[in-house]
Structure formats: structure tokens, C-alpha cells
Prior knowledge:
Layout: H1 2-14, H2 16-28, H3 37-49, E1 55-58, E2 62-68, E3 76-82, H4 109-126, E4 133-139, H5 148-154, E5 165-176, E6 180-182, E7 185-188, E8 190-199, E9 203-204, H6 214-225, H7 227-232, E10 239-247, E11 254-255, E12 258-267, H8 270-290, E13 294-300, E14 306-308, H9 310-324, E15 329-331, H10 342-345, E16 349-358, H11 379-395
Parallel strand pairs: 3-4, 3-5, 5-16, 6-15
Antiparallel strand pairs: 1-2, 2-4, 6-16, 7-14, 8-12, 8-13, 9-11, 10-12
Helix pairs in contact: 1-11, 2-4, 4-11, 6-8, 9-11
Amino acid sequence: MKHLKDEILNLSQQFKQDTIASRRHLHSHPELSFEEYQTAAYVAAQLKAFGITPTEGIAGTGLVALIEGKNPAKKTVALRADMDALPILETNEVPYKSQNEGVMHACGHDVHTSSLLSTAKILQQLKDQFEGTVKLIFQPGEERIPGGASLMIKEGVLQNPRPQSIFGQHVQPQIPAGKVGFREGMYMASADEIYVTVKGKGGHGAMPELNVDPVLIASHIIVALQQIVSRHASPKIPTVLSFGKVIAQGATNVIPNEVYLEGTFRTYDEDWRSSAHQKMIKIATGIAEGMGGSCDFDIRRGYPFLQNNPPLTQRAREYAIELLGKENVLDLDLWLAAEDFAYYTQEADACFYRLGTGNIEKGITSSVHTPTFDIDEKALEIGPALMSWITVQELIQP
């Protein structure tokens, strides 16, 4: 396989400028979740230019395409990239800065999409040298519940043919460009959105005896709910409960009628997740009623936790060592962020790994979901090469 590995590395280097140009184009023209119309059109045009015919309009703006090698029915490996951007105003001063004010590729989906496009180009050129089928999935709406992955699955993206395995890669600015990271088993958390309205009876701040203070009630609820993590969750199950928005439209001497809260709940166990939901509702409504008010507690169930198939991830890690060297392949820790790739992990053997994009010397250190996020474009040499090599290696597995 050495000649094939060398060929993949050479092609990835040969296409490097195309990958960079593609990423910069996408970065300049970001689109929000489920609004990726121009992005999808760009991806479709690129695939057609490679001689690959996509099926468009899946879950609105999603695409799927096949690359068939020799004996295409032997095995199918799926590769996924997400295409949506975030509602963030970019503050980077770069030639490829977002031209859509208030929208930014701050989570690297431009990298994922351009990398998969170049992977497709590589594998299309090599399809006479491997058996089986590669399924390319370009997905909308990763950043927004219910998640484009769940919608594409419902519309049959994992059928005809059904993949035996699926891979996804995601940027990681905390890892230097040139390196990648893997983790077997549980990796990313489930994520639920919490929306709470605490209702009382507003009035003058100098006459508290005439009011039912929703600010005080909400404060007690926020503090009391922390026992969900500290006293109800098993120490063996990572759990996070955070409230990031509190709105009380009163004044220095005005107690409002309502207080509005928003938060997130994340964990790694589905039974505990459901149990915690009920405990939160019971605690919050009990406190509100006990203090003379009421509480509307809405939990919007988000993505499940993401679990990498251990044998598949072990193999992918070994493929990465073969391609990049052991010093460039890292072990990842648990991360309580969420990803809708988790839905794919419930349907097929899956591996979701990290592509290093940071560079301290160049000052490229900003985290994802920030207005200064950017990447060291050296990562665009690694992304397509590794995904192509993993795919070819996995196709030859029995």
C-alpha cells in the first residue's frame, strides 16, 4: 500500500492551493443553518467538475454523492462534512473575511467542507485502485436543533447503499496544525437547551410585601438546580448545568412580573439525562410555587452523546500513525461540547476525530465560536490526505 499512500500524499499536496481557495471562498460566504443555498450550489458545482454527480436537496440544502471503485457492492464507507456557519460578527482582518455581516464560519465548517471536497477529488482519481463505494455526505444545520444529521438520516442518507462505517473530522485550535487527535468510546456530550419563565407579581421595590418577587425566585432556582450536578449526578458521569442568560426587565426600584432564563444541560448517560430533566422541573416548580409564584420550565432535547466505535477508532488511529507519524497523533480527553454527528454514531460504526488547526507562533489560538477564530492553513494539507487514507484502508478491511 506504500505506493497508494505516497500517491495520496502527493495528490493532497498537489491540490493544496485548490483546498485553500475553496476554504477561503466558503469562509467569505458563510450561511446560517438550513440556509446554505449558495454553499450547497458551490459544493454541487465542484463535485460535478470532479466527475461526481451529487443528489441535492436532502433535508433542504444537504447533498450526497457516491464514488464507486471496483466491485462497488463490496463495502461502503461514508464521509461527512457540515456546511453551516454561526451568527457571529467576524473581527479578523483577512482577505477572506466574511462578506455576510453578522455570519461567520467560526466553527471550521468551511474547513470540513473544503477538506471533504478535496478528499472527493483524490478518491475520484484513485477509484480504479480500490474496491467498494465511498459515500460523501455534505450536511446542513449542525449548529441548530434538531440537527441536519437527524434530518438527513430520516430522509435516507444512510441507505442505498448503507455504509458499514462513517467518519467525520472537526477542527481543533488547541491542537497544532499537522497533528490530529482520536478518542475511543464516549467522546462528546449530549446537549439540551433549557428555557425558563419565572412568574410573580411585580411592583415597587420599596413595597416588597405587596409583590411576589420573580427575581428572588429565579435566584433561588438557579442556585438550587446546581445540586443536580453536585448531589444527584453520579461522580462517574460527567455532567454540566449552566445558565447563560438571565433577563429581568425591572429597574432599581421596579420588580418585574417575570424573569426569563436560558441554560444548557450536558451529560454522557441517556437514562440519567432523562431523570435529570424531571428532577430539574420538580425542583424549579416546587421552589416557585413555595414562594408564591409559578414557573414554566421547557427543556428542548438536543443531540445525544457521541460515542466512537472502539475497534474502528483504533484502526483509524493506526492509519493516521502510518500516514503522519506517531508523534503527530494524539489521544483526546472527554469534551462536553456537543455535535450532531452523534446521530450517525447511533446508526453505524463511527469515528469522529480532530484536525489540529492552531499555531501559537502565528498567533492562531482563538477558540471556535469566537469572532477571531481562524486556522493555520497547513491543516488543509493534512485533512484531505488523512481522510482519503483512512477511507482506502478501511475499504480493504474484511
